[in-house]
Please model this.
Amino acid sequence: MQTAPHPVAIHMQPHDGKEPDAPPYPYARAVAGPQPQDHVLWSLFSFSFLNACCLGFAALVFSIKSRDRKVVGDPEGAATYGRTSKCLNIAALIVSIIIFTIAIAIIITSAAALQVQFQEMMKKHH
Model:
């Protein structure tokens, strides 16, 4: 015979800080030690300028998830999302550098080929 689950009440209102064991900020728990990095600024830069294969967007999503985990007091989750964001930012940077280098090489090669064709055309014309 199953019994009905006990109802659970969750109080989601901000507190006034007057309780003796209340955290210093509403909805947050105090975490001792250094805070994990979320790399939000780097991710915004990657999303804005180095968004090759949408890696910058993915890095931004994981950075925001990391920041959310910090707010709720989960440093392990924040660190995990932060490391993922860092890896995605590095991948976005590397892929963008490779694409930029290939594009420059194609432009230089095309310009050299056009110059040779133009010179040949000018020789035939005279």
Summary: The mean pLDDT is 84. The helical segments are 40-49, 55-71, 75-125.
